[in-house]
Amino acid sequence: MTGAAVLSARGLSVDLDGREVLRDVSLDIVPGEVLALVGPNGAGKSTLLSVLSGERTPSAGMVTLDNRDLASFTPLELARRRAVLTQENALSFPFRVIEVIQMGRSPWTRSAELAEDAAVVAASARAADVEHLAHRRFTELSGGERARVSLARVLAQQTGIVFLDEPTAALDLRHQEDVLRIARSLADEGRAVVMVVHDLSLAGAVADRVALLAKGSLVAVGPPTEVLTAEAVSEVYGLVVRVIDIDGRPHVVPSRS
Amino acid sequence: MRKLVLALVLAALLVGGTLASALLGQLPVSTADVVGSILRALFIPNPWAPDDEVVESALWFVRFPRIVMAVVVGAALATAGAVMQAIFGNPLAEPGVVGVSSGAALGAAIAISLGLSMFGDYAVAVLAFAGGLLATLLVYLVSRANGRTEVVTLLLTGIAVNAFGGAGLAFVLFATSTANREQIVFWQLGSLNGSLWREVAVVAVVAVIGVAAAILLGRRYDLLALGERNARHLGLDVERLRLVSIVIVALLTGVGVAFVGIISFVGLVVPHLVRMILGPRHRALILFSAFGGAVLMLIADLLARVVVSGAELPIGMLTSLVGGPFFFFLLWRQRRRSGGWA
Lengths: 257, 342
Fold this sequence. Notes:
The complex is a heterodimer. Chain A is α/β, with parallel strands linked by helices.
């Protein structure tokens, strides 16, 4: 751990239509760290992300941001503290890419940060590799391009906590690596990054800590090499896997023999 | 640059339309009369001002109120359309199409049949507003799913609300006295004829407030285009924005309907054309939609008066005549783009 937790979840449970989607999860989010949420489909990763980001109220338990109940924050206060990359990339009207990225600055309207807007927007576009798309219409872009523009918008929000819900899903190999690099550099700047990822090797490559979820419960949380063991992954996913160590990072491969 | 050109074109059309509308009519009036009379009203002495009492009163009691009414109602309806499209996240939302206008019409008809118009113009306007508000809330609650409104759901809801509004209106017509019935039927056709300054004042006040409020909310409407979740993550209080917007739509539509009758498609056609020219940013979109709506209504009223000589067409019919095919075009284009609707 690099420092004190900025966001703390204690005993989180979520019931959806009588089904327990999340059960007694406690987790700390620490600045300067990339935390990967992994687990099989339906394990509760996205639900946990939405509770941590303040979007969903837990049925039991509490999330605190700087020791203050997350539920007591106004939408604007939250927007200045955390950004969320969702998987929703639809846009109702054909805005240009640059305008969409500028929307990421909106929580800072009428604040001292306003003067930096243009520079922040440009830097965010560059980081997400969408500079060349700046004047295209968002609605004309491919799925992967849209995802990158959304990422640029989230970066432009410049918050201390960044939530990324499957940021690599629609991306090609190179842009997947870009996202990992961005997540890494956000953490190195002292921000807290929480990302949901499906690819365990990807999680192992970038995360400082991995949180493994199964059936709504937190199975293990810790450094990748400790959490992503062949036994744990095989058990949780119901699939025999091998874990190969490359440069101190675990790579998870299904056993296909 | 585009904004400047559009502003100049609209301004030219507005001035030209106003002049043409002031000149037209049974009583011959010259351009000099119009210009002179306006200048005199602005306390600028000039040699062109008409000396004839008849010309002066024709201008100030018949033609000018009508022109201003066209301008403010057009601005109100176009703005209502732009706001509605923003909060429904759907470019086909429009007060007339989804039934807000018929809700407002039902409210106004009830006010007339109960004889509330004796209590002044505001009584009709207030009930029209209430009817429009109920209809908007209904459509809003029924047709939304996950913060977006699918085209099919929206239109089907519109059919239901329109049918209900129409049935209510029919019942009011059936139950009320013959005199009231005539008044309702005449008003329902939609006409700017016989606009009075005190009515114009009511609509103008509401239109100015509504348009100004909508422009102030413009940036928030931009965020809403990202979808409800993303907008909320950017700090937007989505529910509050939607409720405020629904009140704005109901107010703008309500006053328009109360004094001029049901005029459809202005709120659909104008924001679409502006969006094509200027792009979707809502501040400019709303401002120019208000401007464009004013011009469209002015020109539509002009046409309503000259197309058939000696008679006047209902203006609501004229806008629907243009708006209907435009609506078909939009449906066709959306369908071709997205291959139909889920």
